[in-house]
Design goal:
single chain, alpha/beta, Rossmann fold
């Protein structure tokens, strides 16, 4: 059966494979523990017959001492077994999170557009964490309680086989009911995990966009939405709890039914003298002790269903293909970058974002890309570091299709300064050195000076060791932009992409940073995405995009002489204000 107990167990045990030595040692301990539990049940007969019936005082000392030693040994073994299985559970979750984080880090950028950050966080934190409980407790119970059931069943069978069969006939009915409940529990667990993903997503979006939340006065709306989602998660968890507790209820009912038959039938055997009280109570102790691990085994089935639901959700992400990796090392540009008949459609869209782009960017050239919003400017440059792959055609550097180049060697050649500054919750020093971790302090400071950032950095409380907060929230927009420029300067790439790099700066800061960028662009191949056309007048070449196509190309003066798209865009931006 595809979704049977063995199939679910195998899916979880595959995760345990790398730690088989610890698990095997834990199994050995569980077998010994089961033997001790069986020995305790076995001792009931000599205790009853020898002490209470035959009045042997010396036997009381031996049996009492034996029970004490067995309980002490059981405690030590139980500690060792629990510690081993808990460590295995934590290692599995640690490794699974490492694998999932690594895999998601190397998937294409396009895949991030298809899934929210909150959902991915939930997979790494919540779904992976669910597995720790299963391995640490449920797999432990499977080994310990499973062997205990076998040991106690053997004791009961040797004492009285007919009573054992009577007491165990109800268990198949119980496990059938547990299996049916387990399937429902898996569905409910999946629903609950989806709900916690939605909650994580909402929290992530709220805290990331807290300024917009406050400026539009949406705090109350989001709080109510969070309460609603949290209530839905609570309801699903309570459904799961009811199903899990129904399993315990079923086992209690079945256990009570079995014990009732045993007491009635076995009591009559004692009254008729067919068995001794010692035999009966030894058997009864084994059965009482057997039902407790049987109930725990039923919960193991439920836990495996919950783990299977989490594994299925995690494996959805492992099926996402990683970025296609070329094998050829690519060095600094020597001749030119070429777009050869490039067209591109975003996944899930029917419309072309770029159509039949043919473009050559010679080494050392400053190329400006202009056009209205949605014309395809950012898409054009995103193909160069292979954030996306062309739908048709190809991008070449010195005649090599970058699809064949190794991603690390390709991206080492490219530096990006974007309008959307990305900084990390780390020190100023670490953020500047992000693209060149081996840079010396002097190199970092020199890059900061070139970006006109050194002056404000040294005024911070801890200077270059100051923490800047998530996305640089403790800095102004201009300061964040200058750190981004310093980072690009330190990387020292032969190809530079500037996406409105000075857009968030005031006039004074823009002048300083523009000087830094002018120095940075020297002897580099630079692509400038510009919305403010005043920044592209000195470009060696301007490409005008309209509807994903190149409609004009040339220098500023040449394009102004034509009555084309560029001239109209320029006139719109610099039209004189109407007189009041």
């Amino acid at each position: 059966m595809k979704d049977g107990f063995i199939h679910r167990l195998r899916a979880v045990m595959e995760l345990v494979g790398p730690y088989r030595k610890r698990v095997l040692l834990s199994i050995v301990l569980s077998v010994i523990l089961s033997g001790i539990n069986g020995a305790l049940a076995w001792l009931v007969k000599p205790a009853m017959n020898g002490i209470f019936l035959e009045k042997k005082a010396e036997l009381l000392i031996y049996i009492s001492a034996g029970v004490f030693v067995l309980y002490m040994l059981r405690g030590v073994l139980s500690f060792g077994h629990s510690y081993l299985m808990t460590s295995v559970g934590m290692k599995i979750v640690r490794d699974l999170r490492n694998r999932l984080y690594e895999h998601l880090t190397f998937v294409p950028v396009s895949r991030y557009n298809e899934r929210s950050t909150g959902v991915m966080l939930s997979r790494i934190i919540n779904d992976a964490g669910q597995l720790q409980k299963v391995v640490a407790y449920s797999i432990k119970d499977l080994f310990v309680e499973g062997t205990t059931v076998i040991a106690l069943g053997a004791v009961a069978f040797t004492r009285r086989w007919d009573l054992t069969l009577i007491s165990l006939t109800v268990l198949p009915l119980a496990f059938y009911g547990v299996g049916r409940l387990g399937k429902r529990l898996k569905r409910v667990t999946k629903d609950a995990q989806k709900k916690i993903s939605v909650i994580t997503e909402l929290i992530s979006e709220t805290f990331t966009g807290i300024k917009m939340v406050k400026v539009f006065g949406r705090e109350g709306v989001l709080v109510n939405l969070f309460k609603k989602r949290n209530q839905e998660f609570y309801r699903d968890n309570m459904r799961a709890t009811r199903i899990a507790e129904a399993t315990s209820l079923l086992m209690e009912f079945v256990g009570g039914l079995g014990i009732t038959f045993v007491l009635y039938y076995g009591g009559n055997l004692v009254i008729r003298g067919e068995i001794t009280p010692g035999d009966f109570f030894s058997f009864l102790a084994a059965i009482f002790m057997l039902y407790t691990p049987a109930k725990r085994l039923a919960k193991v089935s439920n836990a495996l269903n919950q783990a299977r639901a989490s594994l299925e959700r995690i494996n959805e992400y492992f099926t996402i293909e990683r970025e296609p990796e070329g094998g050829k090392e690519i060095g600094p540009i020597k001749r030119a970058i070429e777009y050869r008949n490039v067209s591109f459609i975003y996944p899930g869209s029917r419309d072309y974002a770029l159509r039949e782009i043919n473009l050559e960017i010679e080494k050392g050239m400053i190329l400006a890309v202009v056009g209205r919003s949605g014309a395809g400017k950012t898409t054009l440059v995103d193909l160069l570091p292979r954030f996306f792959e062309p739908t048709e055609g190809g991008v070449f550097i010195d005649g090599l299709n970058i699809r064949e180049a190794s991603l690390p060697s390709l991206r080492r050649q490219i530096g990006v300064v974007s309008q959307d500054v990305v900084l990390f919750n780390d020190t100023v020093r670490a953020n500047i050195a992000f693209g060149n971790p081996e840079a010396s302090d002097d190199d970092i400071m020199e890059a900061a000076r070139a970006a006109f950032a050194h002056e404000f950095i040294v005024e911070l409380r801890d200077g270059y060791d100051s923490l800047i907060g998530e996305r640089g929230v403790r800095l102004s927009g201009g300061q964040r932009q200058r750190l981004s420029i310093a980072r690009a300067i330190l990387k020292n790439p032969p190809i530079l992409i500037l996406d409105e790099a000075t857009s968030s700066l005031d006039t004074h800061a823009e002048m300083m940073v523009q000087q830094a960028l002018d120095g940075l662009m020297k002897n580099r191949t630079t692509i400038v995405i510009a919305h403010r056309l005043s920044t592209v007048r000195n470009a060696d070449r301007i490409v005008v995009l309209e509807g994903g196509r190149i409609v004009e190309t040339g220098r500023h003066e040449d394009l102004m002489e034509r009555d084309g798209v560029y001239r109209r865009l320029y006139e719109i931006q610099f039209a004189p204000e109407p007189a009041l």
